[in-house]
Design a protein that fits this description.
The protein is α+β, with helices and mostly antiparallel strands and 84 residues long. It has helices at 14-29, 69-81; strands at 2-6, 35-38, 50-53, 61-65. It is globular, with a radius of gyration of 13 Å.
Length: 84
C-alpha cells in the first residue's frame, strides 16, 4: 500500500521531504515503510529505506509504501538485468 506525498518547497532538500513523507506514513499506517517511489530528478540514496525511480511519478511527488522482500528482490534483479 502506498501513500502519496507532495512537497514542492524548493528551499527544502529532498532528504527532508522524504523524511517528512515517511513520518506521515508512520502516523497514518502505524508501521514503517520500506520504499519510496520518486521522479528521477528527486532520486537520492538514503539509509534505511529504498528510494526507487518510477517514470510515472511526477517531480515533487513521493509515493511512500511497503513492498514485500520478494517484490523488492525481483525489482532489483530486473533493474540489474534490464528486464521487467
Amino acid at each position: 500500500m502506498y501513500m502519496m506525498w507532495f512537497d514542492d518547497n524548493n528551499k527544502k532538500p529532498v532528504e527532508r521531504k522524504i523524511d517528512e513523507a515517511v513520518a506521515a506514513y508512520m502516523r497514518h499506517f502505524k508501521t514503517r515503510p520500506n520504499v519510496v517511489l520518486v521522479n528521477e530528478a528527486d532520486h537520492i540514496d538514503l539509509p534505511g529505506i529504498r528510494v526507487r525511480v518510477a517514470g510515472y511519478v511526477q517531480r515533487n511527488n513521493f509515493w511512500v509504501g511497503w513492498e514485500d522482500a520478494a517484490t523488492l528482490n525481483a525489482m532489483a534483479q530486473a533493474a540489474t538485468t534490464g528486464t521487467r
